[in-house]
Protein backbone atom coordinates (compact mmCIF):
# COMPACT_ATOMS: atom_id res chain seq x y z
CA UNK A 1 0.00 0.00 0.00
CA UNK A 2 2.76 2.47 0.80
CA UNK A 3 4.46 1.71 -2.51
CA UNK A 4 1.33 1.98 -4.63
CA UNK A 5 -0.70 4.62 -2.81
CA UNK A 6 2.08 6.86 -1.51
CA UNK A 7 5.42 6.39 -3.28
CA UNK A 8 4.03 6.01 -6.80
CA UNK A 9 1.49 8.77 -6.24
CA UNK A 10 4.31 11.09 -5.24
CA UNK A 11 6.12 10.27 -8.50
CA UNK A 12 2.95 10.91 -10.48
CA UNK A 13 2.34 14.25 -8.76
CA UNK A 14 5.93 15.30 -9.46
CA UNK A 15 5.54 14.38 -13.14
CA UNK A 16 2.30 16.35 -13.34
CA UNK A 17 3.96 19.47 -11.93
CA UNK A 18 6.97 19.11 -14.24
CA UNK A 19 4.82 18.76 -17.35
CA UNK A 20 2.31 21.46 -16.46
CA UNK A 21 -0.62 19.14 -15.71
CA UNK A 22 -2.71 21.32 -13.42
CA UNK A 23 -5.70 19.12 -12.67
CA UNK A 24 -5.55 16.00 -10.50
CA UNK A 25 -8.36 13.79 -9.20
CA UNK A 26 -7.32 11.39 -6.46
CA UNK A 27 -9.11 8.19 -5.52
CA UNK A 28 -8.99 8.35 -1.75
CA UNK A 29 -10.86 6.27 0.79
CA UNK A 30 -13.17 6.34 3.79
CA UNK A 31 -10.41 4.44 5.61
CA UNK A 32 -8.76 7.82 6.36
CA UNK A 33 -11.37 8.29 9.12
CA UNK A 34 -10.66 5.11 11.05
CA UNK A 35 -13.45 4.64 13.58
CA UNK A 36 -15.46 7.88 13.41
CA UNK A 37 -17.10 9.37 16.48
CA UNK A 38 -20.30 10.04 14.54
CA UNK A 39 -22.05 8.40 11.59
CA UNK A 40 -22.84 9.36 8.92
CA UNK A 41 -19.30 10.73 8.82
CA UNK A 42 -18.63 14.12 7.22
CA UNK A 43 -15.50 15.47 5.59
CA UNK A 44 -14.81 17.50 8.74
CA UNK A 45 -14.38 14.42 10.91
CA UNK A 46 -10.97 13.71 12.42
CA UNK A 47 -8.60 11.75 10.21
CA UNK A 48 -7.42 8.76 12.22
CA UNK A 49 -6.70 5.86 9.87
CA UNK A 50 -6.33 2.50 11.58
CA UNK A 51 -4.84 0.54 8.68
CA UNK A 52 -1.81 0.89 6.39
CA UNK A 53 -4.25 1.30 3.50
CA UNK A 54 -5.90 4.33 5.10
CA UNK A 55 -2.60 5.82 6.26
CA UNK A 56 -1.02 5.49 2.82
CA UNK A 57 -3.97 7.24 1.18
CA UNK A 58 -3.96 10.04 3.76
CA UNK A 59 -0.27 10.67 3.07
CA UNK A 60 -1.10 11.30 -0.58
CA UNK A 61 -3.90 13.69 0.37
CA UNK A 62 -1.34 15.64 2.41
CA UNK A 63 1.10 15.68 -0.52
CA UNK A 64 -1.64 16.98 -2.81
CA UNK A 65 -2.51 19.72 -0.35
CA UNK A 66 1.10 20.85 -0.13
CA UNK A 67 1.61 20.65 -3.88
CA UNK A 68 -1.44 22.83 -4.48
CA UNK A 69 -0.03 25.38 -2.04
CA UNK A 70 3.35 25.47 -3.78
CA UNK A 71 2.39 25.25 -7.46
CA UNK A 72 -0.30 26.14 -10.00
CA UNK A 73 -2.02 22.87 -9.29
CA UNK A 74 -5.61 21.96 -8.46
CA UNK A 75 -6.91 18.71 -7.08
CA UNK A 76 -9.94 16.91 -5.76
CA UNK A 77 -9.74 14.00 -3.32
CA UNK A 78 -12.75 11.70 -3.50
CA UNK A 79 -13.10 9.52 -0.43
CA UNK A 80 -14.80 6.35 -1.61
CA UNK A 81 -16.84 4.23 0.68
CA UNK A 82 -17.56 0.66 -0.56
CA UNK A 83 -17.78 0.61 -4.35
CA UNK A 84 -19.91 -2.12 -5.90
CA UNK A 85 -21.71 -3.11 -9.07
CA UNK A 86 -20.80 -3.09 -12.74
CA UNK A 87 -21.50 -1.07 -15.86
CA UNK A 88 -25.33 -0.99 -16.27
CA UNK A 89 -24.84 -1.74 -19.98
CA UNK A 90 -22.88 -4.87 -19.06
CA UNK A 91 -19.74 -3.77 -20.89
CA UNK A 92 -17.43 -4.10 -17.90
CA UNK A 93 -17.40 -5.49 -14.39
CA UNK A 94 -14.97 -6.35 -11.66
CA UNK A 95 -12.60 -9.04 -12.89
CA UNK A 96 -9.90 -8.96 -10.23
CA UNK A 97 -8.79 -12.45 -9.30
CA UNK A 98 -8.84 -13.11 -5.59
CA UNK A 99 -10.95 -10.02 -4.91
CA UNK A 100 -11.82 -9.31 -1.29
CA UNK A 101 -14.86 -7.08 -1.86
CA UNK A 102 -17.86 -8.45 0.00
CA UNK A 103 -20.39 -8.38 -2.84
CA UNK A 104 -17.97 -9.95 -5.32
CA UNK A 105 -17.04 -12.69 -2.84
CA UNK A 106 -20.72 -13.38 -2.10
CA UNK A 107 -21.50 -13.70 -5.81
CA UNK A 108 -18.52 -15.97 -6.41
CA UNK A 109 -19.66 -18.18 -3.54
CA UNK A 110 -23.25 -18.26 -4.81
CA UNK A 111 -22.06 -19.36 -8.26
CA UNK A 112 -19.76 -22.07 -6.92
CA UNK A 113 -16.45 -20.35 -7.64
CA UNK A 114 -15.74 -20.46 -3.91
CA UNK A 115 -16.78 -23.26 -1.54
CA UNK A 116 -17.66 -20.75 1.19
CA UNK A 117 -17.08 -17.18 2.29
CA UNK A 118 -15.76 -15.86 5.57
CA UNK A 119 -17.39 -13.29 7.82
CA UNK A 120 -14.80 -11.46 9.88
CA UNK A 121 -16.25 -10.69 13.30
CA UNK A 122 -19.74 -11.37 14.58
CA UNK A 123 -19.53 -9.54 17.91
CA UNK A 124 -19.62 -5.91 16.79
CA UNK A 125 -22.11 -3.51 18.45
CA UNK A 126 -24.50 -3.70 15.49
CA UNK A 127 -27.97 -5.28 15.11
CA UNK A 128 -26.63 -8.66 13.96
CA UNK A 129 -23.04 -8.43 15.22
CA UNK A 130 -21.41 -7.86 11.81
CA UNK A 131 -19.86 -4.68 10.43
CA UNK A 132 -22.01 -2.02 8.82
CA UNK A 133 -20.82 -0.41 5.60
CA UNK A 134 -22.06 2.09 3.03
CA UNK A 135 -22.17 0.84 -0.57
CA UNK A 136 -22.01 3.04 -3.67
CA UNK A 137 -22.60 1.93 -7.26
CA UNK A 138 -19.65 2.33 -9.62
CA UNK A 139 -21.79 4.29 -12.13
CA UNK A 140 -22.59 6.87 -9.44
CA UNK A 141 -18.89 6.99 -8.61
CA UNK A 142 -18.08 7.74 -12.25
CA UNK A 143 -20.58 10.59 -12.36
CA UNK A 144 -18.95 12.16 -9.30
CA UNK A 145 -15.58 12.13 -11.08
CA UNK A 146 -17.03 14.00 -14.05
CA UNK A 147 -18.60 16.63 -11.79
CA UNK A 148 -15.32 17.07 -9.94
CA UNK A 149 -13.37 17.40 -13.20
CA UNK A 150 -15.71 20.05 -14.56
CA UNK A 151 -15.41 22.20 -11.44
CA UNK A 152 -11.69 21.88 -10.70
CA UNK A 153 -10.95 25.41 -11.89
CA UNK A 154 -13.69 26.97 -9.81
CA UNK A 155 -13.34 24.96 -6.61
CA UNK A 156 -9.97 23.84 -5.35
CA UNK A 157 -8.82 22.04 -3.37
CA UNK A 158 -11.87 19.86 -2.83
CA UNK A 159 -12.46 16.83 -0.65
CA UNK A 160 -15.69 14.86 -0.92
CA UNK A 161 -17.17 11.71 0.55
CA UNK A 162 -18.84 9.36 -1.91
CA UNK A 163 -21.44 7.05 -0.42
CA UNK A 164 -25.20 6.65 -0.30
CA UNK A 165 -25.71 7.56 3.34
CA UNK A 166 -27.19 4.20 4.34
CA UNK A 167 -25.45 1.33 6.04
CA UNK A 168 -25.93 -2.41 5.66
CA UNK A 169 -24.50 -5.23 7.75
CA UNK A 170 -22.39 -7.99 6.24
CA UNK A 171 -25.19 -10.46 6.92
CA UNK A 172 -27.73 -8.20 5.17
CA UNK A 173 -25.53 -8.05 2.07
CA UNK A 174 -25.14 -11.83 2.02
CA UNK A 175 -28.89 -12.28 2.43
CA UNK A 176 -29.52 -9.89 -0.48
CA UNK A 177 -27.10 -11.89 -2.64
CA UNK A 178 -28.95 -15.07 -1.75
CA UNK A 179 -32.27 -13.53 -2.71
CA UNK A 180 -30.97 -12.26 -6.05
CA UNK A 181 -29.18 -15.47 -7.04
CA UNK A 182 -31.62 -17.94 -5.50
CA UNK A 183 -28.65 -19.77 -3.98
CA UNK A 184 -27.66 -20.49 -0.40
CA UNK A 185 -24.28 -18.97 0.39
CA UNK A 186 -22.18 -21.05 2.82
CA UNK A 187 -20.58 -18.85 5.49
CA UNK A 188 -17.70 -19.52 7.88
CA UNK A 189 -17.46 -17.17 10.83
CA UNK A 190 -14.00 -15.90 11.72
CA UNK A 191 -12.43 -13.41 14.13
CA UNK A 192 -12.39 -9.66 13.66
CA UNK A 193 -9.77 -8.10 11.41
CA UNK A 194 -7.66 -5.34 12.93
CA UNK A 195 -8.47 -1.93 11.51
CA UNK A 196 -12.12 -2.70 10.75
CA UNK A 197 -14.44 -0.13 12.36
CA UNK A 198 -17.84 -1.41 13.42
CA UNK A 199 -19.80 1.19 11.44
CA UNK A 200 -18.69 3.35 8.54
CA UNK A 201 -21.40 5.28 6.72
CA UNK A 202 -20.92 8.38 4.57
CA UNK A 203 -22.49 11.76 4.58
CA UNK A 204 -22.43 12.89 0.95
CA UNK A 205 -24.31 16.13 1.63
CA UNK A 206 -21.30 18.27 0.69
CA UNK A 207 -20.88 17.01 -2.87
CA UNK A 208 -24.66 17.01 -3.32
CA UNK A 209 -24.93 20.64 -2.22
CA UNK A 210 -21.84 21.95 -4.01
CA UNK A 211 -21.79 19.93 -7.23
CA UNK A 212 -25.35 18.64 -7.55
CA UNK A 213 -24.37 14.97 -7.36
Question: How would you characterize this protein structure?
Answer:
The chain is of the alpha/beta class and 213 residues long. 36% of the residues lie in helices and 18% in strands. The strands form four sheets. Strands 1-2-7 form a three-stranded parallel β-sheet, sandwiched between helices. A three-stranded mixed β-sheet has the order 8-5-10. Strands 3-6 form a two-stranded parallel sheet. The radius of gyration is 18 Å and the shape is globular.
List the uncertain runs.
none
Mean pLDDT: 93
Radius of gyration: 18 Å
- N-to-C series of helices and strands: HEHEEHEEEHEEHEEH
- Measured as a percent range, the helix fraction is 25-40%
**What spatial order of strands do you see in the largest sheet?**
1-2-7
Strand count: 10
Largest sheet: 3 strands, parallel
Class from helix and strand fractions: alpha/beta
Please state the overall shape, judged from the principal axes of the Cα atoms.
globular
Query: Alpha-carbon distance between the termini?
Result: 30 Å
Q: Please report which band the strand proportion falls in: under 5%, 5-15%, 15-25%, 25-35%, 35-45% or over 45%.
A: 15-25%
Number of helices: 6
Helices and strands in order:
Blueprint: H1 2-18, E1 23-29, H2 52-70, E2 74-80, E3 82-84, H3 102-110, E4 117-120, E5 132-133, E6 135-137, H4 138-150, E7 158-162, E8 168-169, H5 170-181, E9 187-190, E10 199-200, H6 205-211
Parallel strand pairs: 1-2, 2-7, 3-6, 4-9, 5-10
Antiparallel strand pairs: 5-8
Helix pairs in contact: 1-2, 3-5
Amino acid sequence: YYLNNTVKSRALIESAVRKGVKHFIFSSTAAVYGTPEECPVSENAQLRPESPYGSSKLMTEIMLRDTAAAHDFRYTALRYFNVSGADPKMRTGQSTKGATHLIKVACETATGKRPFMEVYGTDYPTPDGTCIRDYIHVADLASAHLLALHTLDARSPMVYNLGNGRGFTVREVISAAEQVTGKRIPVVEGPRREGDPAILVASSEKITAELGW
